[in-house]
Design a protein that fits this description.
The chain is 12% helix and 20% strand. It has 49 residues and is α+β, with helices and mostly antiparallel strands.
Length: 49
């Protein structure tokens, strides 16, 4: 059986400092994992139909 490495990370860029982009230093942190799950929570206006 093969062992997999998994990373789950909530980027939490709600402060707006990333301006919608993932910082380049994040790449250094996530290299080497087999499965990467990046989550982000954001607030937006919901359009009513």
């Amino acid at each position: 059986m093969t062992e997999l490495s998994i990373l789950e990370w909530n980027m939490n860029q709600r402060g707006g400092y990333g301006h919608g982009r993932i910082p380049t230093w994040v790449l250094d942190e996530i290299l080497g994992y087999d499965i990467i799950v990046l989550t982000e929570f954001c607030q937006f206006d919901v359009v009513s139909f």
